[in-house]
């Protein structure tokens, strides 16, 4: 079957999906959270629920490239603290998808992203800028509570709308991760989480032969996006990096609310 006829995709629609796939690669190796724009493009071109199934394998391809690029910079203690809470969030998100319609999903995720972006900006403005927090600070009681809270929200948002990137980006920023540690930790985190979502998505009918056929046509665009991101990340200073992550989160949240 011709890929472009699977959901009656026009040539312009397919071009938009290709650009969104390229942006996925860029976001995985440069500005995590920017792929919320890709999420919005996929949902605009394809049926909203079907778009999450098509996007998931493309995200996994980006995760693999990010792991290969930043594997030496991952902070595993943080990852082990996050995974149990994320697993709970994925289960809650799966149950939510059983009954929630597209409008409820969009509004819920958009509101969560904007709220968390606001909290992150407020925390960073009131924090002591003279002493940067360290990733090991998450071993404190308040740090563990924050990790669990963000973990559940990250699992929930990534399951229902592939929108966990901004949530975890805000968590890693608030935990004091520098640029490469941020990218290495998030790369392994999302590879594990996105692969674990495949059985759930397939069980909900979001991944099938049609979605995989479209993925085969789009995944090649992830590679140049990842290479551009790898080139760009070393030319972005830490403060600009943080601002871009927060800005991408706000853009994604607004798009979800207005779409």
Automatic annotation (TrEMBL):
The chain crosses the membrane at residues 82-99, 105-122, 150-174, 180-200, 212-234. Belongs to the 4-toluene sulfonate uptake permease (TSUP) (TC 2.A.102) family. Signal peptide: none annotated. It is a multi-pass membrane protein. This is Probable membrane transporter protein. Its main location: membrane. It comes from the Bacteria. Keywords: Cell membrane, Membrane, Transmembrane, Transmembrane helix, Transport. The keyword Disulfide bond does not apply. Pfam families: TauE. It is found in: Cell membrane. It comes from Streptomyces anandii. InterPro entries: TM_pro_TauE-like, TSUP.
